[in-house]
Amino acid sequence: MTPPRDGRLDQQAPQQWAPVRENADWESTAPMPRSQATPVYPSMHTDPSASSDQQDASQSHQDQPSRRNVGSGAVLARMCALFYLLLIGVAVLMPDPALVAKLKLKVGHLVQRIAHHITQVPALSVGDVASNVAAFVPVTLLLALAWKRVPLWIWGVVGTLISITAEMLQLLLPEIHRRPLFWNVVQNSFGAWIGVAIAAVFFQLAGLRSREHL
Fold it and tell me: What is this structure's pTM?
C-alpha cells in the first residue's frame, strides 16, 4: 500500500496484514497435524509380472521347508529298510548251505502246520518257496513307506533287480557253495510285488491322496 499524502504511515495496514503474515509464517514453519495430513495410498498401477513373481517366490519359500521335512515314520522306515537290505545281503552271501537248508526246513514245517493240504510236498521244498517269497515282501514294503513320493511300481522293479543281483552274485562266487536258480528270482520277485500291493492297500485304506503326508 502507498503511504498517505500527509506522510504518515497507515496504521490500519499493519493491523490488517499482521495476522495474515503470522498465520503464513506459522503455516510455513509448524508441522501439519497428522490428522490433517494427506493419506498416502499405494499405487494401483503395479507391474503384474513383478507381483506374480513375488507371489511365486513366496509360495516356493513356504513350500521349501515342507519338502525338506521328513516325518519320524519315514525316518524309521528308512532305517529299517537299510537294515533289512543288509540282512538280505548276509543271507545271500552266507557260505554255509547247510545252515540255509535248516532254516528253510523250519519254515517249511511251519507252513505245513498252517496249510495241512500241502503236507504231501517235502518240507524243504515248501520252506524254500515260502522263504524266497516272504523274504522280499518287507523289502518293497519298507522302501515304499520310507520314500513315499516314489511311485510304487518302481519299488517292484527295484525288488526284482535286487533278486537278480543276488542270484548273479551266487553264480559269480562259487566259493560260497550256493546254488543260484531261475525260480529263486521268480519267487523273490513275486514277494517283492506282494510288498508293493500291501503298500498300495495300506495307502488306500489310510485315505490319503498324497502319500508324502504320512
Answer: 0.62
